[in-house]
TrEMBL record:
This is ABC transporter permease. Residues 63-176 form the ABC3 transporter permease C-terminal domain. InterPro entries: ABC-4_Integral_Memb_Prot, ABC3_permease_C, ABC_permease_BceB-typ. Its main location: membrane. The chain crosses the membrane at residues 18-38, 58-79, 109-132, 152-174, 195-216, 228-250, 288-310, 513-535, 570-588, 600-623. Pfam families: FtsX (PF02687). Keywords: Cell membrane, Membrane, Transmembrane, Transmembrane helix, Transport. It is found in: Cell membrane. It is a multi-pass membrane protein. Belongs to the ABC-4 integral membrane protein family.
Length: 633
């Protein structure tokens, strides 16, 4: 048998192990090519949409890294499985150079075939992406199928880079091991000590404690005024606790729990314990890092997806931060010029005006934390407001600000100073943004009765830090005049040249693009992570085949082992998913407070979709493991 025959036969024999790898590789290349095609499509480029181009460019780079990470990890598992065959090839006379030639030819054949298939399917997928972009982002593009030379070139660069990295990884693996080490590499056990050790108890308890502490900090970081002042350091602490805690959890906590359960059984183990518990315990050290990485990256992916969904739902609210009205002015002279222009063009409109005055604020004669003065505005200058003379209402209140200032409904506070101070009852606290952030810079605004305003304005702080401000808003009575009014506003309004409708459109486009890109990358990582765990479980099943054969010889059937295989699959797929979901939930909850999103439902939807797709890989892996055990023993 010559070298070429050995290569072909070896490739065909290993093809059954490469099936899910090939499918995932095709999906990855298809997604990458489709995404890159979107970036270089003439119709998209001709629209001049910078946001879409930048979003596609950022997504392309992240997708590039995700695919390379997946391929490197998967290849590491494959070359480990084939370590014994590498040793046998060397025993029959093949050199390390011959082995690398064999691997180079195999990988070249795999990459060429999957690239051709992926590019062909990607050409169809690009049409789907164009349709999604057109509908979701309201971009006028003509949807058509075609091959973009730039997209093909960039995809080939990805494939070439992956091939070179994989060959370097394979060369390092083969070169650092002798024939004896290659023969025993697959059989090397990382079994832990059967008894519970003190180190295991310390790190096992520490892992659970660190994760719990990270979650607890994330829930109170916006409820404590002192923690709010150190948000950056608190965020770093939470990141450290959850990441390191997750590693200790996979490394020691799981093993500690299993050993405790085993000890309580006093030696009365079942076939399920042998297939499931023992297998997990003997591999926990080796799997700790990979499970931690998958769990953390899953958490990041789900969190980004959840943030994108939450951001999309709160886009309308965020528009009011810059443009409470269709045309918002902060300069009286410019507003007068715009009003005159509207009259000259016979454009009917409605005008709104709010005068803001900064006055001192105290609670129980103590300064309010983080600011000593607050802007007040007349209730008559805001639609739908009627405040009693002895009361005050707050608008533009963020959750973080409310926590920091401790301003709640029903409490009493003092506004003004000296003879011009009034004690008022807080009747309502609203998160509705009615005053542009350009004027208040994230601070709340107090709404008071007209008479109260006249009394308090004499206590105006009157300094450079708290100047008097005016907000003038215009709403058109007819939509037909928008085009002319937009043009006038752009010429006159230097601080806020875009109308509210345009700001809303751009905001929705940005959040839509963020949701689109993050969803696309989330699916890419999901495919990669699911495939990696699938290959890892397939590798473990093959390595433990002799254990199943022993169980079969002493009378157990493959049906008896099914429960253990199912629990093992649930563990391998479920545990990092549960850790990822928990991390993502608390991260999304914290983001929800910062963003003041109305609900967490978008985050739950993203988590549900992610979990369902993830479960598909788990089911496929269980079916494969069950069939392998059934037909091998």
């Amino acid at each position: 048998m010559n070298f070429n025959q050995i290569v072909i036969k070896n490739l065909l024999q290993n093809m059954k192990h490469y099936v899910i790898y090939l499918i995932s590789l095709i999906i990855s290349i298809t997604m990458y090519f489709s995404f890159v095609t979107l970036k270089y499509t003439d119709e998209v480029a001709s629209t001049g949409d910078v946001m879409l181009t930048k979003g596609a460019s950022i997504g392309e780079k992240f997708l590039f890294v995700i695919i390379l990470f997946f391929l490197m990890y998967a290849n590491r598992l494959f070359i480990k499985r084939r370590a014994k065959s590498f040793a046998l090839f060397q025993l029959v006379g093949l050199s390390r150079r011959d082995l690398m030639r064999m691997l180079a030819i195999e990988q070249m054949a795999i990459f060429l075939s999957t690239t051709i298939i992926g590019v062909v399917i990607g050409a169809l997928g690009s049409r789907l992406l164009q349709l999604i972009v057109k509908k979701a982002l309201d971009i006028p593009i003509n949807i058509k199928m075609g091959f973009q030379f730039e997209a093909v070139s960039v995809t080939l660069i990805l494939v070439l880079a992956a091939w070179l990295l994989i060959m370097l990884q394979s060369l390092t693996f083969v070169k650092r091991r002798s024939i004896v080490q290659l023969m025993n590499d697959a059989q090397q056990s990382e079994a832990t000590v059967p008894r519970i050790t003190l180190i295991e108890v310390i790190f096992g308890v520490l892992g659970i404690f660190m994760i719990g502490s990270g979650y607890y900090l994330s829930t109170i970081m916006f409820k404590n005024e002192y923690l709010i002042g150190a948000l950056f350091f608190i965020a770093l602490a939470i990141l450290f606790l959850t990441v390191v805690g997750a590693y200790f959890f996979f490394r020691s906590s799981v093993s500690l729990i299993f050993k405790t359960l085993k000890k309580n059984k006093k030696g009365n183990v079942t076939v399920t314990d042998v297939v499931f518990t023992s297998s997990i315990m003997h591999r926990m050290k080796k799997n700790a890092f990979s499970l931690t990485m998958i769990g953390i990256i899953s958490a990041i992916t789900i969190s980004i997806l959840s943030w994108a969904g939450l951001g999309y739902t709160s886009a309308q609210k965020n528009v009011n931060l810059t443009s409470p009205y269709e045309y918002t002015y902060f300069n009286q002279q410019d507003a007068n010029a715009f009003e005159t222009a509207l009259k000259e063009q016979d454009i009917p409109y409605k005008k709104y005006m709010q005068h803001l005055v900064s006055v001192p604020i105290k609670i129980n004669n103590k300064s309010v934390r983080y600011f000593e003065a607050v802007d007040i505005v007349r209730d008559s200058e805001l639609e739908g407001f009627h405040v009693k003379q002895d009361e005050v209402q707050f608008i533009n209140m963020f959750s973080i600000t409310q926590t920091a200032t401790k301003i709640d409904e029903g409490m009493m506070l003092q506004l003004g100073k000296g003879a011009y101070q009034k004690t008022l009852k807080v009747s309502k606290v609203s998160k509705e943004n009615l005053i542009a952030n350009n004027l208040v810079v994230g601070s709340p605004v107090a709404v008071v009765n007209d008479k109260t305003f006249e009394q308090l304005q004499l206590a105006n702080v009157n300094d450079d830090e708290h100047p008097q401000a005016t907000q003038i808003g215009f709403e058109l009575k007819s939509d037909k005049a928008h085009k002319v009014a937009d043009s006038l506003n752009k010429k006159i309004n230097k601080s806020n040249p875009d109308p509210r409708s345009e700001v809303e459109k751009e905001t929705l486009k940005f959040t839509g693009m963020f949701l689109f890109v993050s969803s696309f990358l989330g699916v890419a990582f999901l495919v990669a992570a699911g495939c990696v765990i699938y290959i890892k479980q397939m590798d473990e099943t093959e390595d433990e085949m002799h254990n199943y054969q022993i169980l079969r010889k002493i009378g157990y059937t493959h049906q008896d082992m099914t429960k253990g295989l199912a629990l093992k699959t649930i563990f391998n797929f479920g545990l990092p998913l549960v850790v990822g979901l928990c991390h993502a939930y608390f991260a999304s909850k914290a983001f929800n407070v910062i963003n003041d999103s109305p609900t967490l439902i978008p985050a739950f939807i993203m988590m549900g979709i992610y979990s369902v797709i993830y479960a598909v890989f788990a089911i496929i892996a269980f079916i494969h493991a069950k069939r392998t055990v059934k037909f091998t023993i």
